[in-house]
Write a structure and sequence with these properties.
Number of strands of chain A: 8
Strand content of chain B: 5-15%
Distance between the termini of chain A: 40 Å
Distance between the termini of chain B: 44 Å
CATH topology of the largest domain in chain A: Rossmann fold
Helix content of chain B: 40-55%
Shape of chain B: globular
Largest sheet of chain B: 4 strands, parallel
Strand order of the largest sheet of chain B: 2-1-3-4
Number of domains of chain A: 2
CATH class of the largest domain in chain A: Alpha Beta
Largest sheet of chain A: 4 strands, parallel
Radius of gyration of chain A: 20 Å
Number of helices of chain A: 17
Strand content of chain A: 5-15%
Order of helices and strands of chain B: HHHHEHEHHHEHEHHHHEHEHHEHHEH
Order of helices and strands of chain A: HHEHEHHEHHEHHHHEHEHHEHEHH
Number of helices of chain B: 19
CATH architecture of the largest domain in chain A: 3-Layer(aba) Sandwich
Oligomer: heterodimer
Helix content of chain A: 40-55%
Number of strands of chain B: 8
Structural class of chain A: alpha/beta
Chain lengths: 393, 466
């Protein structure tokens, strides 16, 4: 069962994607969790979260991006330049952060030198940085404009009925992921963090019906699975964008710890919020995708995000938090600094890791630091009463 | 942070130095000359300012006032807001809030102190802010986070989505200090009705925030005075820009700094008007004689800084331009983009106008003006889209008859480093030799001034420009 998830999570052109393309299906890539996938599903298009895995070199990316830029968009550009994304019929770029939004210009300009690498539908989706009144209104208009653009490009009609049906389907998978999170929160570990991350990741690259079916089967089988209370340290993984399951695996490799939850852009962080199934579907999408976001790009919401993390830490009985940020990711890197201050105060051990994105080019260094952190955990068992006294946060 | 740094507040130190500096020119030349040995580290920046004549002295006094406002704010019953250079302080003056514009303090700390601002820069990192965050904020923010500055009452920025690293630093400061925070957020477009509506709605939300956190209502009479003053200032800047179009330009290199630093400190305040009038007087006299503003009197080349200046200690970058006969035709920071400016033609939507006929028009005017401050105006969207960085740079380069373009920023400028390579390639295609500086405008540890100088010389020599 895990094979399908792993295939979709660890390969850019997975089997399921190839099958979709073989049947003549359209695929539109997107770069940020603010793009409502339901819109594409309602249009009969496969939404595909663009990722940076399988990068082997950086010469194309370095020709367009400057040196002080996060390596994630660089890897994406490199892959696009190498033709790895030639299956895309469209791409949506969003201003998730400064590095990601510049993918728009760099990809287009690279397309001047390398013909054919820019999808015919190349769209900029402007997401505001606040969800109060006018912010959500702006975002709603952006969704309407995107729907119109897709209709024009692909000669389709996206009705409210279709959108509502897609919302219901997506919510079904969201509820299943929530069930999966509840299972992971139990003392008896029934699934590794690496497997769980692969499952979540796969949802961003598989046809939703197929994904939901696999997910249903997985959750049902995990519910039946018998496991004893696990003695490994229970870890939460947070920080910069990660679409590489090796990062989770790295934390678990020592056998001393298991990742029981995460708050990552490709993970359950943005899959956790259900979209309202009543009323205007565009309103519902706007409210859910913008209003419920817990990304640090929504500036000034630190306390809310800390409260969210604290709630997850309590629910999942987390022993320690591994915080990582890709170099030049100031948003997550700085927020990790604040999280570390506030969580350590509450007795929750934290480690901050700065890394480069890519095929874990720094595996040795990261492993050494993680191992040292686990040694610290072993020598300083946290006081559980402190861990659970976070009401003040 | 080193213990000796903890002895004095940063803003107080700057204020004391500037206060003393601004008084030096009040004495005789002999007194001034005798003073020099006692200020070996500061004479390097004092000299060019004093040599700039009346505008230089006024600038010193103006900056002293700015700093004095900060250090005495609470004694005078005023609130203090941490803010950024691309946020016009005029609204804050209209509600009796004292702005602390981090980039201004960073710049002058960098220009004036031999030891630079590294302690404050690094202190932010000790607290958890990434070392890759922009030095323009970190250079003075560290002092405020360490309690080495006026007590901060609130934090306001307007850079999310335009310069995330800037916005992130202010967010960090607000969270770390646990202070009320407001961020103005701009769409990625400019000049259309929908975008302008967003500007206005967001700005009105900010006024609500200010009123709530000061317990005061926006003083509309004061706002009108401020906007009327800005109208005058914009006209004066426009006149200076007209002089800048002359070949040779009669504006000394340092005037660029005066124009934008004055605006960031005192937009809408009479002292900035005085400074502009004095600069205009100097420029007019030189223009009448057909003189260049450069010390040598000979303009070899006209350079445009498409982003920000380099603030090597003692204004060495300006000295280098001056010594090589390179006129500084301004940068992204220098222009007002008032709708009456000639470069607005072809950049429809990038300009603002000021209408003080009603409350609504006043609020709309200041909201639209704020949305057209440097950086937030043209770095907000894709660089090659209408009204954005490329169009703007080309329009200014053409209008000011520039021979070459120089990019300088900081490694924190993710917003420009993300596309400066294709941007520079496009400028070259349009016939402008373009040099990309890889240093940090505020932190010499990234690249020494000497190394930056080597690369500048190499560019000008290889391209046969000098």
């Amino acid at each position: 069962m895990m094979k399908e998830f792993y295939d979709a999570a660890t390969r850019i052109r997975s089997d399921v994607l190839s099958r979709w393309k073989d049947t003549g299906g359209n695929v539109v890539g997107y770069t940020c969790s603010y793009v409502p996938s339901e819109i594409f599903h309602a249009a009969g298009i496969l939404p595909y979260r663009i990722r940076g895995i399988e990068t082997e070199s950086m010469e194309i990316a370095d020709a367009y991006f400057g040196p002080y830029i996060c390596t994630f968009p660089k890897c994406v550009l490199q892959l696009a330049g190498k033709g790895k994304y030639d299956f895309l019929d469209g791409a949506i770029i969003t201003p998730g952060c400064d590095s990601m939004r510049r993918l728009d210009e760099c990809w287009r300009k690279a397309g001047d030198a390398i013909p054919g690498i820019v999808p015919s539908f190349f769209y900029y989706f402007d997401v505001p940085h606040k969800s109060i009144g006018h912010g959500t209104r702006w975002f709603r208009e952006e969704i309407v404009n995107l729907i119109k653009a897709l209709e024009n490009q692909f000669g389709i009609t996206i009705t409210d009925e279709k959108l509502n049906a897609s919302i219901r389907l997506y919510n079904r998978a969201r509820r299943l992921l929530k069930e999966l999170e509840d299972l992971r929160a139990k003392d008896a570990v029934v699934i590794s963090g690496t497997d769980a991350f692969a499952v979540t990741m796969a949802g961003t690259a598989m046809p939703r019906e197929e994904y939901t079916e696999h997910l249903e089967n997985l959750v049902a089988s995990l519910k039946k699975k018998k496991a004893k209370k696990d003695e490994r340290k229970r870890i939460m993984l947070i920080g910069s964008i990660s679409d590489d399951i090796s990062l989770v695996d790295l934390v678990e490799q020592s056998g001393k710890a298991v990742v029981v939850t995460e708050n990552l852009c490709f993970g359950v962080r943005d899959e956790g919020n259900e979209v309202a199934e009543e009323g205007d579907p565009v309103d519902a999408l706007a409210k859910a995708y913008l209003g419920e976001s817990t990304c640090p790009r929504m500036y000034g919401k630190y306390k809310e995000r800390l409260a969210t993390l604290s709630a997850i830490i309590r629910r999942s009985n987390v022993d320690a938090v591994v915080m990582q940020n890709i170099r030049f990711c100031d948003l997550h890197g700085s927020e990790n600094g604040l999280f570390e201050r506030d969580l350590e105060k509450e007795g929750i051990p934290c480690i901050r890791l700065e890394r480069e994105y890519g095929p874990l080019v720094e595996t040795g260094r990261l492993r050494m630091r993680i191992d040292a952190f686990f040694e610290r955990l072993e020598s300083q068992r946290p006081h559980k009463e402190n861990v659970y006294s976070m009401e003040a946060v | 942070m080193r213990p000796e740094i903890l002895e004095y507040n940063m803003d107080w130190m700057l204020c004391s130095i500037m206060m003393a500096a601004s008084k030096t020119a009040d004495g005789s030349r002999k007194e001034y000359d005798r003073l020099q040995p006692y200020i070996p580290y500061f004479s390097g920046i004092l000299e060019p300012m004093v040599n700039a004549g009346k505008p230089g002295i006024t600038f010193l006094k103006m900056f002293t006032d700015y700093l004095d406002n900060i250090v005495t704010a609470h004694d005078k019953g005023k609130k203090v807001a941490l803010t950024t250079f691309c946020f016009s302080p005029s609204i804050l003056y209209s509600i009796d809030v004292v702005p602390v514009t981090l980039e201004i303090l960073t710049t002058f700390g960098r220009l004036m102190w031999r030891r630079g601002i590294v302690d404050y820069l690094d202190y932010c990192v000790e607290l958890g802010l990434t070392e890759t965050a922009c030095s323009a904020q970190r250079g003075s923010m560290g002092a405020y986070l360490a309690g080495l500055g006026a007590h901060v009452d609130m934090v306001i920025c307007d850079t999310p989505g335009v310069c995330d690293t800037n916005a992130n630093s202010f967010t960090f400061a607000a969270a770390y200090l646990d202070k009320p925070y407001f961020q103005l957020n701009y769409p990625q477009t400019i000049g259309d009705e929908r975008t302008d509506k967003y500007h206005l709605e967001d700005y009105m939300a900010m006024i609500d925030f200010l009123e709530k956190n000061t317990g005061k209502k926006l003083d509309l009479d004061r706002l009108k005075l401020t906007l009327d003053e800005i109208k005058i200032q914009d006209q004066l800047v426009s006149d200076l820009e007209d002089y800048h179009r002359l070949v040779p330009t009669p504006l000394p290199v340092i005037f660029n700094l005066f124009i934008y630093a004055g605006r960031f400190m005192f937009a809408g305040e009479p002292i900035y008007t005085k400074l502009l009038k004095e600069m205009l007087e100097v420029a007019g006299e030189k223009a009448a004689k057909g003189e260049s503003g450069l010390t040598s009197g000979k303009e070899n080349l006209r350079a445009f800084m498409c982003y920000i200046d380099h603030y090597a200690i003692n204004l060495q970058f300006y000295d280098w331009l001056n010594d090589n006969g390179i006129a500084h035709l301004g940068g992204i920071l220098s222009r007002t983009f008032n709708i009456a400016s000639p470069y607005i033609k072809g950049l429809e939507g990038s300009g603002y106008s000021i209408d003080t006929s009603s409350i609504e028009t006043m609020i709309d005017s200041i909201a639209q003006m704020n949305a057209r401050m440097p950086m937030v105006r043209s770095i907000r969207g894709q660089y090659d889209k209408p009204g954005m960085w490329l169009e703007e740079t080309l329009a200014l380069a053409k209008m000011f008859k520039v021979d070459c373009i120089i990019y300088n920023g900081t490694p924190g400028c993710r917003n420009t480093w993300g596309m400066v390579k294709p941007f520079a390639m496009d400028l070259e295609k349009h016939g402008y030799p373009t040099h990309v500086m890889y240093g940090d405008a505020f932190d010499e540890r990234v690249e020494s001034w000497e190394a930056s100088l080597e690369r500048l010389n190499e560019f000008f020599n290889v391209r046969g420009l000098l």
